[in-house]
Amino acid sequence: MEITQGIIKKLSEAGLKITPQRVAVMQTLCKLRMHPTAEELFAEVSKIIPGLSATTIYNTLDTFVEKGMIKRVKTDADVMRYDAITEHHHHLYCAVSDRMEDYFDNELDEMLSAYFERKQIKGFRISDIRLQLMGDFNERKQTQ
Q1: pTM for the whole thing?
Q2: Which residues pair with 111 in a beta bridge?
Q3: Is residue 113 part of a domain?
């Protein structure tokens, strides 16, 4: 119940009408934590709200992104995923398993900020630095 109240507060603060669909989409996005695609969200939210349309999911996600409530994250495979964590962080991505995880590292953030303060890019102002580290989570079966 606590997460639902937080979501209702977040929707209200964003100036959005509180609907069961919006609450369910945000609740599912927060619960999954695996940066789901719109299709994955649709499959999960449809279990809660049968008869929900895919268009509702896409429109809701677009609205949440516009309001800064979630972020879009594009994978190396050109797949759009969604992230409920809007605080600054990076991502670890494995193309083999298509798995993405959040990565928080204050030391890395400080190092990158200091570097770009020293070595500014002429004619360009950096507003945000987000890394997507690509590698392998070592989950492949050792069958070879």
Answers
A1: 0.83
A2: none
A3: yes
